[in-house]
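Section 3.1: Structural characterization of target chains.
Under the original work plan, the team committed to producing a structural model for every single-chain target entering the pipeline before any wet-lab resources were allocated. The record below documents one such target. The sequence was received from the expression subgroup and is listed exactly as submitted; it comprises 648 residues.
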Amino acid sequence: MENLGYIRVAAAKPAVKVGDVEFNVNRICDMVKQADQKNVSLLVFPELSVTGYTCADLFFQSNLLEKSIEGLKTLADFSHDVRTTFIVGIPIARRNAIYNCAAIISEGKVWGVVPKKYLPNYNEFYERRWFAEGVKSDDVIAPFNYEIPFSTHLLFNRYGITFGVEICEDLWVPVPPSSQMSKSGAEIIFNLSATDELAGKHSYLVDLIEQQSARCRCAYVYASAGSGESSTDLAFAGNCIIAENGVLLCCSERFSLSPQMEIADVDVELLRNDRNHHNTFRTEPDNMIEPIIIIKRKEGDDQTQKTAIINNLEYRYVNPTPFVEKNENLLRQRCDEISSIQAWGLAQRLKAIKCDKAVIGISGGLDSTLALLVTVKAFDLLSLDRKGIIGITMPGFGTTERTHGNAWNLMEELGVTPMEIAINKAVEIHFSDIGQNPDKHDATYENSQARERTQILMDMANKTGGIVIGTGDLSELALGWCTYNGDQMSMYGVNASIPKTLVRDLVKGYMISEKNEKVKETLQDIIDTPISPELLPAAADGSIAQKTEDFVGPYELHDFFLHLMLRHSFSPTKIFTLACKAFEGAYDRETIKKWLITFYRRFFSQQFKRSCMPDGVKVGSVCLSPRGDWRMPSDASSALWISEAENL
């Protein structure tokens, strides 16, 4: 089984009885067994989970501290029988002080103990009353027949994955220990916590965890105390939260009387690739946290244990539309923000070159519609007369009444200057000049129309003193589904970083906020129109005959491939595996494989078109601009990628 870079982690909230170590240890063992049965590799429990967090002055009782060490030994012995590595919270007395600690347990032993570094001194729980701050220097304890590293400066390595541990308040300080741990190589951070509930605090906590995972480009696994803790002064509702690189993977139900466990399949390869991409994130040898404790496997164990190799991704949602926000409210906000970025970029260009004219080809399709709407927004932003926008519809051999009518209606209702210049005669003369048979519907037949339209736009821009606004989108550039020096060329491309799957939603966003009913109706019909360049003659009934996705494949698949390849640098095998999960029930494996091969073939062979892209503002994390976002030789070989895809 190939390792695709995933590891299964979990945060657990067991039942607890304050001060009852035996009960708590048994409940921890129960949940470790459950996690082991679900192939969890790394599991974290709440702060002071062995005793309960709310013991207060009972922490001074020697029998409680001694019983805690006995409980730790029980847990270590128990770990012989499971594959899951787990982390528990425990008070440990040493050198006339008590420490609030996390113990890392696996393979029959305690591999390390991390004391809490920052102790809160607010609300009703003044931890400084009972505990000392974690020691900064490396040290050891020996409660059993072997020495155990004891320090805030510990990192652990299991299955080749490095992780660190911090405790509750450590996350809330200006520079959390996890920040330095991540800079020292930690890919997953575990937090044992006992966060009390206050109005509004939960949403802040989730945001904090998401932000720390994003800042550290890590996975953050958080387990907090819940049912069973004392409610004398505070409420502990239990929070099991897992985030990865700024994305919330799962979050438990609060105020549950039952034990809870949240499980997620963390993509370590994604984290590593993201760190490689950002040269501001570098491991710093001079300031690294040491030592790293390598948690060894039992002698004779297979080096690729099932707990470390997770390919079925039971506990991971794979978004089939990574460019599109799923939440409707957030999508509306995102679309408004994106359209504002597009319009602002164009407005800045017009202002910089002192230009009050824009020329744009309007086909009645989604891309040109979005470009026109963005241009109108930019003109409004600059308080320019919309009549300075020259919209030109250029019907050709494949133009249908539907798209032609929508193009004209849209221009008139938006108040721009509409023009119509048919290209049929000019293209026919060109065919005669170059000896092209007009009945031969090949690349020359199609591209001649695209270049004729571009020539008209460029010449009209010269004539009016304006600039040509490009309409092509990110997906077309990725696939090379554009005519070189035809629709590939413009003077400013407002859609250059907008993928096809997002274009429709952006147009829909404009439609929702539009007050003109005729514009709304036209935009809705444009949204419902099949995607087509309309370069081949229409069908006998006048409908669109040339549908882009019949030829190049579904854009939702290609946008999925594009995002995972460029944003995360995944291999064809991993992209295919994720696509099969994301599109299960929509496309079978052979269909996905077919279009994946097509994607790689077209992406590599069409780089030359991207190497001379016009300027255009970037709006998202994926862009193909040769000036910074994507630099690739136009003659690079695709053999490695296609070979792997063909052998899936």
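The first helix runs from residue 21 to 37.
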